[in-house]
Amino acid sequence: MAGGTLSECYRFCHRLYPEVCYGGISSIRKVRLHRRIGEYLEQSFVGHAADIASELANDFEQAQYPEHTVRYHSE
What we know:
By secondary structure, the chain is mainly alpha-helical. It is built from four helices and no strands.
C-alpha cells in the first residue's frame, strides 16, 4: 500500500508480452507515462524515496527529467 492507497501487481505470463505492449506506445506517451509514474512514486514515498531511488531515477530518465534523474541516481 503506497501512499495509503491500495495497489495491484500484475505479472505477464511471458516476457514477450510486456515488450509488445510497451512497443505499441508512442515515444511521447512513454515520456508522459514515466513522468506521471515518477511523480506519483515521489509523492507516495515522501521521506522514503531512497528506498526506491533506482526506480525513480529510471522513470525520470525515461521522462527526460535530468535534474530528477541525477538526484535519484546519487541516493
